[in-house]
What does this fold into?
Amino acid sequence: MAEGIPPTLSVVTGDGGGIVWVLGVLGDNLGALEPAARKALAQARYVAGGRRQLAAWRTWLADRAALEAGARAVPTIEMTDDADDFVQQVAQRAVDGGVDVCVLASGDPGFFGLTRALLRVVDRHRLRVLPAPSSVAVAFSRLGLPWDDAVVASAHGRPLADAVRSVRLARKAAVLTSPENPPQALGRALLDAGVNLDLVAVCSRLGCADETVHEIDLLALAAGRFDPLSVVVLVGPGGLQSLGWGVGSSVSSDVETGPSGRALAWGLPESAFTHRGGMVTKSEIRSVILGKLALPAVGVLWDLGAGSGSVAVECALVCPGLTVFAVEQDEQAAAVVAANAARFGAGVHVVTGHAPEALGALPDPDRVFVGGGGSTVLDAAVRRLRPGGRVVATFAALGRAAEAVEQLGRLVQVSVARASQLPDGGWRLTGANPVFVVWGPVDDEEPPGVGRDVEIDGRRP
Ligand SMILES: C[S@@+](CC[C@H](N)C(=O)[O-])C[C@H]1O[C@@H](n2cnc3c(N)ncnc32)[C@H](O)[C@@H]1O
It folds into this structure.
């Protein structure tokens, strides 16, 4: 068994088998291994790792430090696409064979690395993990940025869409890329998601002699060709100014507070959105609309007749997992929607076109907000709605609202009066035109006007 176990690590218990050393290596630089790692590697009876790490190990064997430590060529276990088979072979050599095995892993093996896979087959007391800095830590350090407020996602052996969903609203993020999901594929997916970024950096082959760091923009990321062994750093609006702890959060990412630093909240004032001639849903009405939409965590939402896009933007901010389409026929208004979404870092797909024709190419919705377009648009929304879905529509005119409630089932009239101060310091209320909010379909159990009741312990409160 190798000597030099750091005193902080617990001694292996059990049947007296070998140790599985998991040595982090950044890039191909085994020369940077700490003394305990170097000693373990020199004394191991097997060396395991990916092709890149094993090649680096073979090169290292000729180093003076390796020779001094008594390192010699030993049998290897090479990682294949079948990670389970790899860790199984490692475990068999160490546990059944009773000898030490060194696994060479990239960066910090506990961070999107091999430690998790090894734990499936090896008791954690048999592991000795000696990490190098993670590629993510090194990427941010190369850029001179803190990263305790960054969201990190991996597209290595995982679906790219999941990584995009995790990072698209983050103020600051890093994505680990891979041969199947290289940086340019991430760029194209982020463009499709309508993400707005202030800084994109592709940090490739960190720790290797040919390391590169390219600061570019999203278009260049999507159009380029990059080394798959990269960390892509993404900084959204406000991210370069964010101070981590300074944002008032004790968590290490901005998932909890969202990109605007707000807790779960909606109903921003109209002035928060660029709009043309008052074409923006009023703050209080928007709050009711979001409530009636009963947004699911994931799914597809259409905002039809989006105007300023305020409803689409708030839905996307409240539920980042939703795929939000804002349909607007007026080209200038559509540009305003895109600008509002970009300013908030909201993932909104803007569709410039006339509904219902423009809906043909969109995926069927789970939620629809109809802010304009008349009965043909409402009919199309209801027809395309997925099972369990819901449509919410607003009307100023009672006649059209009455038609819609026949179709959807529920209606409230919302009257808002805002207080303003008089010159003598007193307050007066100014009423706005009432708005009819109509929603459905609803099941028979739902009482008119108040939305769905929730059962607690089988009883209605
Ligand atoms: C399975 S993950 C391992 C991450 C590793 N545990 C860490 O802490 O860096 C593999 C991904 O990490 C990133 N990566 C690892 N080494 C890198 C390097 N030297 N330069 C850039 N990215 C690297 C790449 O995105 C690669 O696809």
